[in-house]
């Protein structure tokens, strides 16, 4: 029986340390769900961020308009620039923040899975989960991929909500080109293009 | 070997999950009370598995969890409030909705918190929590049960952490066990990291003093001696116990550490429970009044903790019963007495000898200093 005590402690430790599935406030989508749910997927650089007041039925709120220079469209159709509206932002001495909403700065380069239908709180699918950072190595010129929290990943499998987080150096991370290929292939596999 | 594994696991858990990686968003509330208007009655509650009668009970319980650890800010729940929700209405509303005032939820969103603040003063002015009413909800402890629905209490604890001023550690590249992570599964309560974050903003933690407890293997050795004493010396029959010897030694000693560092019985029990559940080591409550005279808690309180431990092992950990000749009362009375002798200058052998005298009815021998 004493053996079981140690086993339980060890199991509890592993369970909480790896935290494999689920979420408290946002359910992490699978890669396939990201591709399926996104209206558009694009590689873009943030070129403008502007917050402003807008009226709603319940009163004024602040929204932030983020404009991207579209480098490549992987799903849907976009022009050379596109703008997404996020709830929250800062105007004068008033600020509205929303838990888990992605925040963009001019110069950020990302792969973004977006869906603007229904005026969402965040047009990025799955809140933070539909944003993938493009990491640029100035020495090699290599562009590699990381998740929203700058955690590099080496394969699509690592994006599975049940996958154990892996410590991947950016030098071994999936390249932007390879990630884009994975997305376009997944888009082709969809039963019907949206 | 087994004891070594347990100790290794405990040390490892400290090393891995003891890292303080909470993330502060920046603004906080002024010292005092933050009133939360619980307006969740629009969605009828099913039979809630934790015994709560309604959503207000579950949400209020979430506030109680934070309140237990914060000094300078306390949530004040207003159950079953009917004031109506509104953006920038000066109230902190908590309600169910299919969207947020015309802004739709992502299909994977369970709840969101929106907070207003004044950047010039870094002060919160209003925070609303919105639960996605299209999801299935309940209130329970333990792992997520897909057939039952999402546990409103743990989601509320998480969202209240945002209201207090905490962000997601994992959004910022931190790897720590925390209910405030955006990604969690089996955690149903605050962890040491969440509490440290709350206390960094609103106080409530204590640094305490190091208590020179004996090595756990020696306490375990004493407990093994006690088993033999009860079985062969006193002729006590074996009884069932759900908390095994190792668990009792480890957690009673940990309870003592909290008690000796200014924690009440309830505070110590709560902190040990978080630790058993893998939530890390929560800070102590303060420093002892004296480091030369070690005052132990009343035995009935230690016994109460031991009974709570028994219940936790049986009903939460669902452990099988083990056999022991030392009943729960004898277990805690003599472990506490052993620790009292050890912390007051006695060696391992002296402590066993003095306890042997007590059990044999030869009076209470003095401590060794």
- Class derived from helix and strand content of chain B: alpha/beta
Chains forming the largest contact: A-B, 59 and 73 residues
Round the Cα radius of gyration of chain A to an integer and report it.
19 Å
Largest sheet of chain A: 6 strands, antiparallel
Q: What characteristic shape of chain B results from the CA principal axes? A: elongated
Strands ordered across the widest β-sheet of chain A: 3-2-1-6-7-8
* Beginning-to-end CA distance, first to last residue of chain B: 34 Å
CATH architecture of the largest domain in chain B: 3-Layer(aba) Sandwich
Please trace the helix and strand order of chain A, writing H or E for each element.
HHEEEEEEEEH
| CATH topology grouping of the largest domain in chain B | Collagenase (Catalytic Domain)
Give the neighbour order of strands across the main sheet of chain B. Answer: 2-1-3-7-6
Q: Provide the residue-averaged pLDDT of chain B.
A: 88
Low-confidence stretches of chain B: 1-18
Share of helix of chain A, binned = 10-25%
Residue ranges of chain A: pLDDT <50 for 5 or more in a row? 1-23
Task: Give the helix/strand class of chain A.
Answer: alpha+beta
| SS elements, strand count of chain B | 11
